[in-house]
Amino acid sequence: MTRAAQLIATTSMALCLSLSAAPAQDQDGAATGADAKPAVSAAQPAAAAGEAAPDAAAAATSKAPAGEAPDVSSAGEWQTSMSLTEPSKYPADFEHYDYVNPDAPKGGTLNSVALGSYDSFNPFVVRGTPAAGLANFGGGLLYDSLMEQSTDEPSVSHAMIAEAVRFPEDDSFVTFRLDPRARFHDGEPITVEDVIWSFDTLKALHPQWGAYYKNVVKAEKTGEREVTFTFDQTGNRELPHIMGDLTVLPKHWWEGTGPDGNKRDISQPTLEPPLGSGPYKIGRFVTGQSIEWERVKDYWGADVATHKGRYNYDRIDYTYLRDANAAWEAFKKGGLNDYRLENSARRWSQEYNFPAFENGQVKKVAIPDHQVESMQAYVLNNRLPKFQDRRLREALTLAYNFEEMNKTLFFGLYSRMASYFDNSELAATGLPSEGELKFLEPLRDEIPPEVFTEEFELPVYTDNRSVRDNLRKALELLREAGYELEGTRLVDSKTGRQLSIEMLGDDPTDARVLQPYADSLKRLGIDASIRIVDTNQYIERITNFDFEMVSVKYYPQSLSPGNEQRDFWSSAAADSPGSRNYAGIKNPAIDKLIDNIVYATDRDDLVAATRALDRVMLWEYYVVPQYRNADMWLAYWDKLEMSGKRPGYSTIDPFAWWIKSAEKAASN
């Protein structure tokens, strides 16, 4: 996730950036969900599952000899960018992104808000809540990474700390050559030793990082400024890119002594501002209440192509507020929050009528969003016995009346979410293609038979008759699953206990989205209740999968899905607290389909394998799909100036904006 995406996620107000961005290769966009919050356990790296290549991919994948030194001369030519799809549109010597103003003035303050609180400046450990602006993947505001994911193209990374990269055709290793200009904020050069220490430390620091880097068996110095990562397999096209995302930490600082005279310990939370290498450093802060980020005036990477014309604010100030409503009030008043990505159709349609908007101080714009739309849904915790019957899960999907909610709550602005990869060529449609069948046929006895014979369709509610028909079908499925009606109560025919479902939220406004669905479930005799807890408790419960149903938007997908799918849907991730497999999917067939994606040999196979995965998960009814917004709704105070162009992939890039007062000052 790029720094732009991290900042977007922070100020979207769906949930605060006490939740850091997670490793999901080449996922640059961070669009906010429609009237929903993003999934919350984004603070942890992807948990690997089924790392061995599946039979379907065996021809293209093999185990590399562990421990043998790679022949780096076989790695081909040095290159300044990497792409999993088409080559980058930018030449090796490009000076800046097309959409930025390379002469944008520096200065001024960007004000933002975050929700909840924080108690640590170390985002790389489970303990503690990291402050806004920090991220355990991609570096956040403080650190640089070897390569930097592009905001302007999907699946592309450009040179950053590494000025060049090369790897062989079989993807068995990758070598990075460090930029001699790269420096930490204390002036010390970033060395190969720092890279190796960062890799070794992160891999040992947390079992999920260990799983994420499981296929990386060795990091070693192979030249004066060269570091090589060796893999235990070939054919995994994402591994070189994953290593390019490595955040590089200062070994000398973390192994040094703090102001208290004690040796620093990266395995523990800390409130000592760490030494960084990125465009900003921590300035003033009040623990849990606010944090100020100061632009590093002599930042080594200011003129690197991906940074030219960006990171223009002298300061980025985060103020912590108690909830989303307080954040909305702060935005209307001004001074604490300079822009927001609106995720409420009601607000967008009816509540932008406050004085600052009426007099033109606040502007809003709907920007067409061309990114892949990740699943937004009522997520069932399939770890619980009551959700393990597919017939029950299908019945819950039949009970959801999207059309009524869209009409009465969302002003008809949304469309139904019908894929885990919506708004892209990766979404499954119609019946399986020949390419998909290559991956589905070996699993015929392990997946729903409808996958092969029926087009997946969600229920449609158009009138009273369709309401009755859908609820009747749902009740029939529930009876098949072992439930029966006793008066107005749906009970387990064996135990006599009423089926109950608790919906979890962290803000009173969540009831607006949860209550209509709860009412539909009650019509089936289900005891559907809503429980609202504070933000910290909500995060804790979701992280530890302590819920029955929750309304969330999964971490953004990309046009090149890969290893991160293991963290979303794999059996291993289901039992790994902090993973993003919120639904608790434990299905060997899903694990095999994920491996088909990871080891896809070309674009056609990748698309077909992804559609096959999408199709099977839809027919398994692990979640109840909600809705999506075709646009990104941006509102901002007119103190912000923009170039008039937008990045082709991430839709917006707040780091490419600047403060008008700074522009005036520069001209005087």
Topology, element by element:
Layout: H1 3-11, E1 37-38, E2 62-63, E3 81-83, E4 109-115, E5 147-149, E6 156-159, E7 162-166, E8 173-178, H2 192-205, H3 207-212, E9 216-223, E10 226-231, E11 233-234, H4 239-244, H5 251-254, E12 280-286, E13 290-295, E14 315-321, H6 324-333, E15 339-342, H7 345-351, H8 355-358, E16 362-368, E17 373-374, E18 376-380, H9 390-398, H10 402-408, E19 415-416, E20 421-422, H11 434-440, H12 450-453, H13 464-480, E21 483-486, E22 489-492, E23 500-505, H14 511-523, E24 527-532, H15 535-543, E25 549-553, H16 564-569, H17 571-574, H18 588-598, H19 603-620, E26 623-625, E27 627-628, E28 631-637, E29 640-641, E30 658-659, H20 660-667
Parallel strand pairs: 1-25, 4-14, 23-24, 23-25
Antiparallel strand pairs: 2-11, 3-6, 5-6, 7-8, 8-10, 9-10, 12-13, 13-14, 15-28, 16-28, 17-20, 18-25, 18-26, 19-27, 21-22, 29-30
Helix pairs in contact: 9-13, 11-19, 18-19
Strand content: 15-25%
Distance between the termini: 37 Å
Quick one: biggest sheet? 6 strands, mixed
Query: What would you report as the Rg, rounded to the nearest angstrom?
Result: 25 Å
Descriptive notes:
This protein has 668 residues and is α+β, with helices and mostly antiparallel strands. The strands form 10 sheets. Strands 1, 18, 23, 24, 25 and 26 form a 6-stranded mixed beta sheet that branches. A hairpin with a 2-residue loop joins strand 21 and strand 22. Helix 9 packs antiparallel against helix 13, helix 11 crosses helix 19 and helix 18 runs antiparallel to helix 19. The longest helix is centred in the C-terminal third of the chain and has 18 residues. It starts with a helix and ends with a helix.
